[in-house]
Structures are given as structure tokens and as C-alpha cells.
Amino acid sequence: MYAKASSESDHSAGVQTSENGNNSNQNRTVIEFEDNRLAAIIFGQHDHNLARIEQRLGVLLINRGNRVAIEGSPEAMDLAKKVLEELYEHAKAGHDVEMGDVDGALRMIAGVDEPVKKKTPKPAAESRAHNSHLKITTRNKVIMPRSPGQADYMAKLQKNEMVFGVGPAGTGKTYLAVAMAVSRMLAGEIDRIVLSRPAVEAGENLGFLPGDLKDKVDPYLRPLYDALYDMMPAEQVEKRIASGHIEIAPLAYMRGRTLSNAFVILDEAQNTTPMQMKMFLTRFGENSRMVVCGDPSQVDLPRGTRSGLRHALDILRGVDGIAVTRFNQKDVVRHPLVARIVDAYGDDDGR
Q1: 306: which of 28, 62, 120, 262 is 20 to 30 A away, CA to CA?
Q2: Considering just the CA atoms, what is the radius of gyration of the chain in Å?
Q3: Residue 25: left (phi > 0), alpha (psi -120 to 50), or beta?
Q4: How many whole angstroms separate alpha carbon 152 and alpha carbon 158?
Q5: Where are the alpha helices (DSSP H) in the chain?
Q6: CA atoms of 202 and 297, how far apart (whole Å)
Q7: Distance separating alpha carbons of residues 15 and 10, to the nearest angstrom
Q8: Is the pLDDT of residue 167 over 90?
């Protein structure tokens, strides 16, 4: 039998905790969730979520019904308990618990992205629980930060009129910006969303692509469409595009305009020239928000052409009203292999 030792936070989460030792120089703690259905959600199909926590923290998780026994070092057990409690609160709020949510909780609470090796992982500087107020609500989902970089970015998106999100692919720069834009439109804070990106890609030339101008540029804008469809039902996206409340256009279409009461996003900003970037930034109008997303390591401009993103980051440093979030490979929230690929390319660039 285990002696129950519950804290106030345990009661609020619907969790009871009991502890003891065993004969293998490792400690054991048992947590019990009030709702069996929610417990099954956080465990995942075939206990896949528990397996990910075991792999990342170096603990052993044994579940029976709504109870989970945690075995491991005291530090790792404490982190595993906090991760499980966070996931339970997420499920309790009515959200699904996907593998990305598990990875996000591990990253925010335990500060780990890779399987544990020798040392016990150190807790992240800011727990995800401290960022529980950071969320973006859209028609299709509620989005919460899955890395410290995302938490910083979301906080700046909420507070600042102009934000630069800079860093490698897979960190959620554009996705979170589109989510914030949709959230503000649904709340009636802005009248329209304008999504843009330069029609420049590695080794491609628009003139050789088939179709009219829309057919030529749509493939370059596809990631923006994908993000929109993830936030809203497809029929609503199409309706708002047809009415002009959502506009997706190449950067060249921005010249000569003043964008008021709008949420304006520039994606792939590293492929702008300094003049194009200046043109875009000066489109800013009354009651507008502007987000510039890009990865300075993936510039596809002709050799010798300076990136407008790098130029802007240099000359706008310290300008009041402009915030910058710099992501790194630890903020990559796609498959863990993506983070390792980004890391390897970064090492090669350094050499």
C-alpha cells in the first residue's frame, strides 16, 4: 500500500500522489487521476504518450486504469509527474492530447528534446504552467506554446504592433502568426488578414511555370493556405478569400498600398531585398498588426544580393514598438529529426 500525500495543486488537477521506495535504488511515486476517460486520453493510443515521456526523461511508467506508477531518479520522477499533470489539465480543458502536445510539455517543463542519456535533464527556465495564459483560440483549435521560443513569440504577438519571427524551419513562426491573425479577426479586432511572401525560390523562374499569374504564384503561397485551413473550416476560408477579408498575394502586390485595420504577415522574408522590405514595412496603417517571418540561413536570392530581412534586423534594432523573437533548433516543433538536421547544417555552416 502507498501512503497518500496530496498537495493543493494535486487536488486542483484531479491528481493524487503517493510515494515509497523499492529495492532497486530507484524511487517510485504513484499518481491517480480522477477521470478515467481523461487519463486514457493523456496515455495515448497503445500508451504512445507514456512511451515518449519514458524515452525523454529516463523513467519507467506503469499504468493501471487511472493510476500511473513512476520509477526513476527523484528529479526525473518529479519532472514526469509535472508533465503528466500538465497534459491532464490540457485534456481537462477539452483538448486532444497529441504527440506534439507531449513534446511541448516536455520541452517547456523539462527542457528536453532528445532521449535522456546520462544526466538528468534540467527543468526549463520557464515552466509551461507559467505560460498558461498564452494561447490562441481559432475555430478549429486552441494553440498553446510548445517551446520557450514560441512562448516568447506568442507573448510579443499579443503585445506588439510589429514583430519579427526569425529562425529555422519548423519553429512555428508563420503558423503562430496566422493563428493570431485568425483569432483577432474572429474577435472582431481587425477587418482583414493580408498574407504575403516573395515569389522567389531556389532555382525556379515564374516565367517558365504554366498558367496565368495566379496559377504561377499559388504554389509559392501554398504554406499560407495550409495554415489557414488548419485554423478555420475550408468553406469559411474560401468565403472570406472571395469577399476580400483574407488576401493572399505575392509581395509585389503590396506596393502603393496602405493597410489599415489589418493583420499583415510577410513569410519567407529572407528572400526580400532591402528595398522590398522597406516597401513592405511602410505599408503599415492605423489599427494594424504586422509580422515578418524568415530564416536568414535559407536565402534564395541571387548571389551578391543582400537579404532585406538581415538589413531590417540591423537597422531597426532598438526601434520602439518593434519586437524580435529569435528561434533556434531547440524550438523546432516538427519531428525531432528536423531539429537534428537543422543542427547538422548549422555546424556545417560554421565550419
Answers
A1: 262
A2: 23
A3: left
A4: 10
A5: 8-12, 36-43, 48-57, 74-92, 99-105, 148-159, 173-186, 213-231, 234-243, 274-281, 308-315, 336-350
A6: 13
A7: 5
A8: yes
Better pLDDT: 297 or 100 = 297
pLDDT digits (tens, 9 = 90+) for 313-335: 999 998 988 999 999 888 887 66
Report residue 3's pLDDT band, with 50, 70 and 90 as the boundaries: very low
Cα-Cα-Cα-Cα dihedral sign, residues 110, 112, 116, 122: negative
CA distance 293 to 335: 21
- pTM of the predicted model as reported, rounded to 2 decimal places: 0.68
| Cβ-contact 267, 291 below 8 angstroms | no
| β-strand partners of 250 | 197
Round the average pLDDT of the chain to a whole number and report it: 81
Segment 220-236 shows an average pLDDT of 88
User: pLDDT (tens digit, 9 = 90+) per residue, 7-38?
Assistant: 333 444 566 666 655 544 458 889 999 988 98
Instruction: For 79, list phi and psi in degrees, rounded to 5.
Output: -65, -45
Distance of CA 175 to the CA centre of its chain: 7
Residue bearing cell 499583415: 264
Q: How many CB atoms lie within 10 A of CB 15?
A: 22
Distance of CA 83 to the CA centre of its chain: 18
DSSP string, 5-67: ---HHHHHTTEEEEEEE-SSS-EEEEEEES-HHHHHHHH-GGGHHHHHHHHHHT-EEEEETTE
SS3 content of the chain, % helix, strand, coil (to 5): 45, 20, 35
Flag whether pLDDT at 129 surpasses 80.
no
* pLDDT above 70: residue 225: yes
d(Cα 298, Cα 239) in Å, to the nearest integer?
Answer: 34
Return d(Cα 192, Cα 243) in angstroms, integer: 10
